[in-house]
Design a protein that fits this description.
About 45% of the residues lie in helices and about 20% in strands. By secondary structure, it is an alpha/beta fold. It folds into three domains: about 90 residues, Winged helix-like DNA-binding domain superfamily/Winged helix DNA-binding domain (Arc Repressor Mutant, subunit A, Orthogonal Bundle); about 100 residues, D-Maltodextrin-Binding Protein, domain 2, CATH 3.40.190.10; about 100 residues, 3-Layer(aba) Sandwich (D-Maltodextrin-Binding Protein, domain 2), CATH 3.40.190.
């Protein structure tokens, strides 16, 4: 390494890089200050020092926030790479610490958490009781963003969510169904197209959830609008609202079946092709995950049933 390169590396401050990335992601020094629990003036001072270190302007500052200069865009790319490498180093070294031998941060959608992850993570922990798993529930779009920004090692979400530069692997499939009171006119249908439900009041999940976005798109394609009565943030809350006459709702069929005894409700499978969904695991780079995270990914990947494996080998 040349002397000038060594001097540049010594002058570069990692905290300033982290704050620069935060400002870029939020588009505002004030918002970054709130998220990072630091005074806005302190961030401004570090950004000025960072621009002095690199010898060029990195941000256009205006009343609405900040925009990146071309040099700022280049630095943002490299800063994310440096910070990601540091997180990877920390993850691998943490496996040698006393006590917990590994630590995996997982963000997942409500569909994955309710339907599949309790059994899958329970089985993994029984095999690797020295591993600590931090699991957080988020909307699919937020899961993707958390992995992109390094807040999670592994994400599990609906496959229709844009993944950008992330890698993905298959996890599970589920099917959406209409949930109605048992005395409802649709309760005894063997299946129903979503367009046929649009005359009824509906109980919806969060407006940016993958399920609600799919329903809104289906309604638009049918030239209709959803008669939304209320938004809820959980599947059990949806069931309680439906049971009390506030409308009908859509959720994964397996999730409904697992929630025994939540009201006097009936489950009618949706016949629309998009109601069959794929859940995927997402990561920046599966090959560079810490050892324990790679073990979890391998455990979560779908494996063929013994009969299917025998047929494939025949």
């Amino acid at each position: 390494m040349k002397s000038s390169e060594r001097n540049f590396a010594r002058r570069m401050d990692l905290t300033s890089l982290q704050l620069f990335v935060a400002v870029c992601e939020l588009g505002s020094i004030g918002k970054a200050a709130e998220r990072e629990f630091i005074a806005a003036s302190a961030i401004s001072k570090r950004l000025t020092e960072l621009e002095a270190t690199v010898g060029t302007q990195l941000l256009y500052r205006h009343t609405r926030g900040v925009d990146l200069t071309p040099a700022g865009e280049s630095l943002l790319h490299h800063a994310r790479s440096v910070l990601f490498s540091l997180e990877k180093m920390q993850g691998e070294l943490s496996e040698y610490a006393d006590g917990v031998r590994g630590h995996v941060r997982v963000h997942a959608s409500i569909s994955a958490i309710v339907q599949f992850l309790p059994e899958d993570l329970g089985a993994f922990i029984r095999q690797h009781d020295e591993v600590k798993i931090d699991l957080e529930e988020h909307l699919s779009s937020e899961v993707v963003r958390a992995v992109q920004e390094g807040a999670a090692d592994l994400g599990i979400c609906n496959a229709s969510t844009p993944q950008g530069e992330l890698q993905s692997l298959p996890y599970r499939h589920d099917r959406l169904a209409l949930i109605v009171p048992r005395g409802h006119a649709l309760a005894h249908w063997p299946s129903v197209a979503y367009a046929d439900t649009l005359d009824h009041d509906q109980v919806g999940l969060h407006s940016t959830s993958s399920i609600y976005l799919a329903l809104r798109q289906a309604a638009e394609q049918a030239g209709r609008t959803i008669k939304l009565r209320i938004h809820v943030t959980s599947l059990d809350a949806m069931c309680r609202m439906i049971d009390n006459g506030l409308g009908v709702g859509v959720m994964p069929q397996r999730a409904f079946e697992l929630m025994h005894g939540v009201g006097q409700l009936a489950c009618v499978p949706l016949s629309d092709p998009w109601a069959e969904r794929a859940l995927h695991m997402v990561a920046r780079d599966f090959s560079t995950l810490p050892v324990t995270a790679r073990l979890l990914v391998e455990h979560l990947q779908p494996h063929p049933a013994p009969e299917a494996a025998l047929q494939a080998a025949a």
